[in-house]
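Cross-posted from the bioinformatics board.
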Amino acid sequence: MTSERAGVSAPPDLVFTTFIRATPEAVWRAITESDFTVRYYYGSTVECDWAPGSPYVYRIDGEPALEGVILESVPERRLVMTFHATWDDMVAADRPSRMTWELEPAGPGVTKVTVIHGGFEAANETYRQAEGAAYILAGLKTLLETGSPLAGG
Amino acid sequence: MDDEVFRALADPSRRTLLDRLFERDGQTLGELETALPGMTRFGTMKHLKVLETANLVTSRKVGRERHHYLNPVPIRRIHDRWLDRYRIRAADLLDDLRLSLETDPMTTPDLAAGAVEAPQHVFSTFIRATPEKIWQALTTSEFTTRYWYGSTITSDWVVGSPYELRTHDDKPAIAGNVLEADPPRRLVMTYTSPWTNVPGEPPSKVTFEIEAAGPGVQKLTLVHETEPGSSTRIAEVAAGWPFILSGLKTLLETGEPMTS
């Protein structure tokens, strides 16, 4: 059940929240550097200068799997990007959706990390597969707190 | 693509399902079944499958249930492609207005979280631990005191038995009854607390599910829900669940509490 919505509309935005025993600085690095992403983001590297307007691409085994454009970037605080997955034909046919990362200090040594995936007006398959964000966040937390990946660690 | 949409729309049962979702988006199979009296659950499923293939409906699994949402885009495309040729200008303008009003994306986090009205809140995380260890962490004070705001938890975890969570300074916090207990996979209990209870309203319900999710990893899903129409207030406590689940994960993976 979602909140009440009148008539026709897109699938609702999805919100994923976790708390990580790490500084916002460490979380930001883990989001933006391939040395980290390969160990929690489905084995992918990421290429981007993280400036607003810049393109980004995640690659799995060298093949593009996810790409888009940075819409907003406030280091250690907030990152907004368009989200166009290409890891299978079904998602690739979708129009881009939108992903937002928010980092907030939440007590001594703890950072609250929120991922909001929205803009599914023309991205049904992306929506269907959006649960992956929960897995990515869980992997990010495990990596930062234990130094080893969630799976196979 | 158009062929699939026309084929999907050709069937009156499928149009009924779309009408039902137009009235209220996000319904489960069980709810949609009632729209088609005389049809089996399997029949309803088959129709939903056709609608999904035509991209007129999208669905999402939440805990054990699948919720279905209307996708207006393909019908809109057909409208633009086929009906525009015979358009009646005024009617079309009205339709454009309606569409632009109704497809406004919900972008604010609070609305997106459904934190205000949603009768169901779902949280999932993945934990590097055995299912037995996670079960133990949910049901014994030895663990809860280190991640659940210092609280103790007491029950024999048998169906029908009561359970109680007390604060670190031994004040009553949460209580209820065990509705289902299938260690180490599924635990369902009623949930009453001074923060959620409304006199005369039924208690809310909490479900924990633990599923295998790859070697050494479990997926833990928590569903906190009220009965439809109930005014039991779970939004605020539901906002606290990610913190509790995060603490549980840290404790099991590192052996240390997340916060000191």
